[in-house]
Amino acid sequence: MAKIKLLKFGATWCGPCKNMAKNKVIERFSEAHPDVEIKLYDLPGEEEADKLEALGEAEDPSPDLKPFYEAEEAAQDHDVEHLPTVLFEDEDGEELARSDEAMNLLGLEKLYKQARKAAE
Known about the structure:
It is globular and about 45 Å long. A hairpin with a 4-residue loop joins strand 3 (85-90) and strand 4. The chain has a 4-stranded mixed beta sheet, sandwiched between helices. It is built from 5 helices and 4 strands, in the order E-H-H-E-H-H-E-E-H. It has one domain: Glutaredoxin, CATH 3.40.30. It has 120 residues and is of the alpha+beta class.
């Protein structure tokens, strides 16, 4: 079976994202599926977004802004328009399954099943 990755886009200011974190949805999924690589992206709030916008094209973000910069780039690459967004992709970066809403562990398991089927 192909290697499958889970990407989760969220933010500390996002209510549904907070609910997923409080319920440890990703952590519990990870425990059940240690073979799935997981990448979590925390998108910036207004303060961090303003700082990133103030950077020039040639400037590298400071270490405290680098995770937000990488999250914004990944969100653009994956056409993320809503938070939270959870998606599964194969090792080549092809999207297999996606949800643009908060979910519980059962919902995440169903999405993973869709991804596995699409990877076959």
